[in-house]
Amino acid sequence: MSIETLAETARAMVAAGKGILAIDESSATLARRFAEVGIHNSEANRRAYRELLLTAPGLADSISGAILYDETIRQSTRDGVPFAQYLAGQGILPGIKVDKGTQPLAGCPGEVVTEGLDGLRARLEEYYKLGARFAKWRAVIHIGDDIPTGTCIESNSHALARYAALCQEQGLVPMVEPEVLMDGDHDIETSFDVHEVVLRSLFDALYQHNVMLEGTILKPSMVLPGSTSGDSASVEEVAEATLTCMKSTVPAILPGVVFLSGGQDDERATAHLDAMNRMGPHPWTLSFSYGRAMQSAAMKIWSRDLAANVGKAQDTVIVRARANAQAALGKWDRAQA
Hints:
Layout lengths: L2 H11 L5 E4 L4 H11 L5 H12 L8 E6 L1 H4 L9 H7 L3 E5 L4 E3 L7 E3 L5 H10 L4 E8 L8 H20 L3 E8 L7 H21 L8 E2 L16 H15 L6 E4 L6 H13 L6 E6 L1 H13 L5 H18 L10
Parallel strand pairs: 1-2, 1-10, 2-3, 3-6, 6-7, 7-8, 8-9, 9-10
Antiparallel strand pairs: 4-5
């Protein structure tokens, strides 16, 4: 796969005023979320929920790509059209989560490393044949007493870089996701310091593995105070801290940055993205790749009547998608939220 083709796909993923829909939760994670709202966990219900999200009328106006789970990329609409094929027909790029989740990092209590490199080349080849055109790998960094350690940061950066190189070899744009969790009582300054070290380590590893940055997308967390810190950082403070961190670590050749919501509520995640874009212009496109911040309200509505509330739930998805698309342009009107 040529770098020109990879770069073209990456640019399409961060098209102006569009973002990425993340519906790549594992079956176990989705089961937990179903349980929270009283939905029976079955393959049929998981498929129906994915279809509700992916077939929402007008989704392509605000969404450039969708990250799928292994189960989902093998499923089809009620009419028998494979989801990846359906998305491509709507002008939405199909993506796929390829990591195997986190495991405790030996020798580093309280820290984890993401696994899934074994057999990855063959899996990527299969996913490309199934229609995927980009992939995602998530690393998880905890902030706490004496963590993260350099060992944890370097181990996860190395895995992200190996994954990214394999993706580009197989014609897939790698989305690299180094998530610094907001769990904890740390302040925003500590969050900034950890984000900066993590991103420097990541891009150093990407360079070492000859990953072509013009064909790569970054999916980072925002610089936020810990969720139990009691630190009520303003929208502008979060936006400024996140932008300063990005500008000091992210090369300008990267096509775009799509932020994860990371446990923020729907409106807060939108507000932070909007504030950052109002502070532009920036070297790269700043957009979104939200999961729960795009879906939580829709799932609650759907859970009340799986047969009758599909349309109402889809309307909610579109409202959230449009709001975030406006924020990606720095034009979100909070008064209409």
